[in-house]
Design a protein that fits this description.
2 helices, 125 residues, mainly alpha, elongated
Length: 125
């Protein structure tokens, strides 16, 4: 388990570190303010380009997560129904096994049971 945690941490570092370096370099390199306008509305907002890009990226991540979460809802619901059905079937199997044991306990032993075929000598089947 410790080895796996170490490997996951290393893989995360290998992926996250370069992205973090790029984001920091982008933020430092683009400090110039840019005007942000919404065309039908009057006025403009002067904001650093790096802040605008980072906020739009963060908004994209949040929207993507919400869409992914909503897409998983159907799968989760279906999985919960399947688990419930499996539990019901397991209970039903357990009840049937108990009934089988009861029937076997009440059954007539084979040596005392009447024969279905006449095995007396001289009788042809």
């Amino acid at each position: 388990m410790a080895r796996r945690n170490w490997a996951v941490r290393l893989a995360s570092f290998i992926v996250v570190f370069p992205i973090t370096v790029l984001v920091v370099l982008f933020a430092i390199s683009n400090l110039a303010p840019v005007p942000i306008r919404l065309e039908p509305l009057p006025g403009a907002l002067e904001v650093s380009l790096s802040i605008v890009v980072l906020l739009v990226g963060a908004l994209g991540v949040v929207v993507g997560e919400v869409i992914a979460w909503a897409g998983e809802l159907g799968h989760k619901r279906r999985a919960e129904r399947a688990e419930k059905r499996a539990d019901d079937l397991e209970r039903e199997i357990a009840v049937m096994r108990i009934r089988e044991e009861e029937l076997r306990a009440r059954a007539v032993p084979a040596e005392r049971r009447p024969a279905l075929v006449d095995r007396r000598p001289g009788k042809a089947a």
